[in-house]
Amino acid sequence: MSHKWILLGCILIPALACAQQQAHKTTTNHRAYALKLHRQALVFDTHNDVLSELTMKGYDISHRLSVGNTDLVRLQQGGVDAQFFSIWCDGSYGKGQAFAWANREIDSLMAIIHRNPDRIALATSAHQVDSIVAQHKIAALIGVEGGHMIEDRLDYLDSLYKRGMRYMTLTWNNSTDWATSAVDETRNADRLSHKGLTAFGREVVRRMNQLGVIVDLAHVGEQTFYDALAVTSKPVLVSHSSVYALDPVARNLKDDQIKAVARNGGVICVNFYDAFLDPQFSRRLDSLIAAHPRLRDSLQQLYPETMDFQIHFLQALPQAAESIKPPLSLLIDHIDYIVKLVGVDYVGLGADFDGAEAFPRGMNDVTAYPLITEALLKREYSPEDIRKILGGNVMRVLRANDP
After folding, report:
1. Residue 11 CB: number of other CB atoms within 10 A?
2. Mean pLDDT across 255-284
3. Which of 169, 339, 346, 366 could share a disulfide with 78, CB 3.0–4.6 Å?
4. pLDDT band at residue 193, thresholds of 50, 70 and 90?
5. Least confident window among 182-191, 208-217, 254-263
6. What is the pLDDT of residue 298?
7. How far apart are CA 282 and CA 156, in angstroms?
8. What pLDDT, on a 0 to 100 scale, did the predictor assign at position 52?
9. Could you tell me if 211 and 217 are in contact, meaning their C-beta atoms sit under 8 angstroms apart?
10. Buried/exposed code over 356-395 (b: 16+ C-beta within 10 A; e: otherwise)
11. Lowest mean pLDDT among 6-10, 196-200, 245-249
C-alpha cells in the first residue's frame, strides 16, 4: 500500500470515529430532551380498554403484569398523567344487562382507586385533573363506550354521570334504537330501521351537554356524526379514530369529518391500532395466519373471540409478528395529516391499548408514549405544539364541557 493511502486512512478513520461518536451523542441528547419534555407535559390518553380486557377477568392492574398493555406501574413509567378508562360491553348485552355491566366495570375501577390512593384518583373535571396530576398521581376518568349501555333511558345517562362518566361514545359497532354505527351504516344499511340520530338521540346529545358529558363520535356512522354535530352546543371528542385518507376503514374519519370536528372546536384522538393506521396490515396478518394452519386451528379452539385469537397467535410468533407491524412513523403520519389539514389544536392521543391486537413497532404497551414525543420532535414540532398533542387539546375540550 502506498504511503498516501496509509496517510489518508490515518486521517479518515479517526474522523469517521469522531463523526460516529458525535452522532451518538446527538441522538442521546435528543432522546434525553424528548424524555424531559414528555415528563413536563400533561400526557392525556382518551381510550384504554384494560378494565374489560384484564380487570374484569381477575387481573389486578395495581401491579406490573406480564399480560396486556396496561397497569399502574407501566402507566407511570410511560408518563401518562390522565387516562380515560373505557367502560364497555358489546351489543349482546341487551336491555336489563348493559347498564348493570357498565356499573360493574365502574365498580372495578373504583376498587383499583381505593386500593391505590397514593397513585391514582378519580377525576370528574378539568380542575380535578390538574389537582390530581399536581399530586403526582394518575387522573382516572370514565368514558362509556357505547350508547346501548344507557338502555334508551335518560335516567340511566344521569346515573352514569353521577358515577363519574365524562364522555359517552354514542354507539359502539352496534347501533342503538336512536343512533347508527359506522359498521351498520357501511355494511348493513339495508337492514337499518333508521339512519343517524332519532328525536330521542338528539335529546340524548342535548342532555349530555347539560350534564357536562363529552359527546364522543368514535364508532358512529357518518349520518350520526353530522346529526350529532348539528345538535351539540359543546366541543366533541373522537376518542380513538384515525385518518380515512391514509387507511380507508369505516372507523376512520374522512377529510370533511376532520374539518367538521375542527369547526366544532373538538379533538380527534388518533388510534394506535395497526389496522387503522396501515391499509396493508390486515392482509399481512391474514397471510401470516394462513401460513401456520396448525397453530391457527389449535388457537382458534382455545380462543374463539377474534381479538383474543389474534393476540395469542402473534404472541406465539414474536419475530414474525414484529415483521408485519408498521413503523411508528406511520402513526405520526396520521397526526401529521390532521395537523396539516386543520391545525395542531384538533389532534390528540387515543391509543386503544388493551382494545386491539397489534400496535406499531416499539409501541407494545403504555410505557412507549415517550417514543411519540421523540418522533414529534424529529418532525420538528415545537415543544408548545407537542404539549397540545400529548394532552393540552383534550384538556381544552374537557374544560369546555365542564358544566
Report:
1. 10
2. 98
3. 366
4. confident
5. 182-191
6. 95
7. 38
8. 97
9. no
10. bbbbbbebebbbbbbbbbbbbbeeebeeebbbbbbbbbbb
11. 6-10
- Which grid cell sits at 102? 357498565
Domain borders along the chain are 23-278+329-401, 282-325
Q: How far apart are CA 276 and CA 219, in angstroms?
A: 12
Work out the pLDDT band at 29, boundaries 50, 70, 90: confident
Between 259 and 22, the higher pLDDT residue: 259
Rounded to 10 deg, the angle between the 293-302 and 281-290 helix axes is: 100
In sequence order, what are the beta bridge partners of 170? none
* Superfamily holding 23-278+329-401: Metal-dependent hydrolases (3.20.20.140)
Grid cell listed for 197: 340520530
Which cell is 176 given?
A: 342503538
Contacts (Cβ under 8 Å, ≥6 apart) of 95 = 151, 152
Average pLDDT over every residue of 53-63: 97
pLDDT over threshold 70, residue 49: yes
Q: Does residue 173 contact residue 181 with C-beta atoms inside 8 Å?
A: yes
- Confidence check: pLDDT of 3 > 70: no
Amino acid at 351: A
- Mean pLDDT, residues 343-358 taken together: 97
